[in-house]
What we know:
Number of helices: 6
Low-confidence stretches: none
Number of domains: 1
Radius of gyration: 19 Å
Shape: globular
Number of strands: 4
Helix content: 55-70%
Structural class: mainly alpha
Largest sheet: 2 strands, antiparallel
Strand content: 5-15%
Amino acid sequence: MSTQFQVAERSGTNNHHLALLRWSMVAIFVWFGIQKFTPYAADAIAPLISHSPFISWLGVFGVIGEARIIGTIELVTAAFLIAGSVVPVASATGAAMAALTFVLTTSFVFSTPGITLTSPSGFPIVSTLLEQFLLKDVALLAACLTLLAASVRRRANDAREGASAA
């Protein structure tokens, strides 16, 4: 089996609509990436970072430093998504980076205390604005995984290729 990279929008005859997903993701990553360079956004994400089992170590850079690192990663992700509109490997790389971002942000729902409340029956309640904001990342994760799946194709090596190489 070999892996072939392709621009998601060009991966099939009916995949041009994936450009809508790509450019929506670009807008989101540029917008949120730039915001991470503001004190307001840095303060807003600090509690999420400090309770994360994956990125709490960023606290060594201080609130502003950790936000700038995340903002830089988001802007680099946007750059890969943009390049991915013409470069096949960048299409897969940008989609993978974006998907990992949304896996991480979705994990904040479980790692940040006080976000999720439980009903008397024990069922979790989407109760805070922060949790509502983070739950949209599930849909964004699905969009990024769709771009990633369309950017990577596994194909079986042709037996003749193997025979001719011998």
